[in-house]
Amino acid sequence: MAKKQDEIYASTLKEVIDFKFDERVVSVFPDMIQRSVPGYKTLISSIGILAGRYAQDNTHCYDLGCSLGAVSLSMRQRLGTIGCEIIAVDNSPEMIAQGQLLLEAESKQGEAVPIKMVCSDIDKVEIYNASVVVLNFTLQFIAVEERLALVERIYNGLVPGGVLILSEKLAFDEQTQSDFMIDAHHDFKRDNGYSNLEISQKRTALEKVMVPETLTCHKQRLSDAGFGFNSVWFQCFNFTSIIAIK
Ligand code: GEK
Fold first, then answer.
1. What pLDDT digit, counting tens, does each position of 222-244 carry?
2. What is the CATH number of the domain that holds 157?
3. Is residue 101 pLDDT above 80, yes or no?
4. Residue at 200 is within a domain
5. Ligand 1: which residue has its CA nearest to atom 30?
């Protein structure tokens, strides 16, 4: 499918309203995320590889905040397990509707691993008998005070040896390091064709909606939830991915 270019913040807006995963965003989402998240393609394929390694027979693999289902499709390609089901969840009806179309276009008859796309808040979805749970840039959109409860629920829903893969944009306590990371990320966006106006208006739109935290904070929360081991396995500028094993 040809990618439609993201031009949502290209002209001066009278008022920059809070970012929403609505129809306009969905229509440009593959272009937007690839030009905004350093290493997005590598993350998607690598998460598939990790899922291939950690998925267990007759369990669920969850893709929470799945958007158009890129992680689910990558996992499905690489699962060598028997009796697994991928459950992809997003609370944006527009994302799920478009994701469902992409999934149908990508699916071949007799596909070994089914993908179930669910339009729901993560809060309302039971997480159980899971060997792989992925939060690929989703936790940052959940209210800070609800994050520990969600990570605990994921821990409790995992089978022994199961994993949580958590990708997030990071904040940094130290000012010089923070400035460096933010500048480097903006250079990345400019290199991908975004103007200073687009970068600045998108930043304003995301300010209240997406709240990044420090790596220390994420690692502490994973331990508090019960995970005995966690490690960063990817970082590019202020974007990271962590694996935590039960
Ligand atoms: C990818 N993982 O392409 N419940 C369900 N979904 C939610 C919730 C919630 N409470 N809050 C936000 N979302 C994807 C990219 S995007 C990240 C994930 C980004 C959904 C929201 O609708 C959106 O689709 C997704 O989480 C975050 O690998 O755009 O920066």
1. 999 999 999 999 999 999 999 99
2. 3.40.50.150
3. yes
4. no
5. 137
Domain count, the chain: 1
CA-CA distance, 86 to 153, in Å (whole number)? 18
**77 lies in some domain:** yes
Whose CA is closest to atom 9 on ligand 1? 121
Whether 90 maps to a domain, the answer reads: yes
Nearest atom within ligand 1 for CA of residue 210 = 30
Sheet of 130-136: strands edge to edge?
115-119, 85-90, 60-64, 130-136, 158-169, 239-245, 229-236
Q: What is the largest CA-CA distance in the chain?
A: 54
- What pLDDT does 129 receive? 98
Q: What's the pTM value of the predicted model, to 2 decimals?
A: 0.95
Question: Ligand 1, closest atom to CA 137?
Answer: 17
Q: Which two tokens stand for residue 51?
A: 């899922």
DSSP 8-state code for residue 122: G
The pLDDT tens digits for 18-75 are: 767 778 878 888 988 999 999 999 999 999 999 999 999 999 999 999 999 999 999 9
Ligand 1 pocket residues where CB is under 6 Å: 21, 33, 65-67, 70-71, 89-92, 95, 121-122, 136-138, 141-142
Q: Is residue 111 part of a domain?
A: yes
* Mutation pick for ligand 1 pocket among 22, 64, 138 (CB with most ligand atoms within 8 Å): 138
Expressed as residue numbers, the domain containing 87 is 40-171+214-245
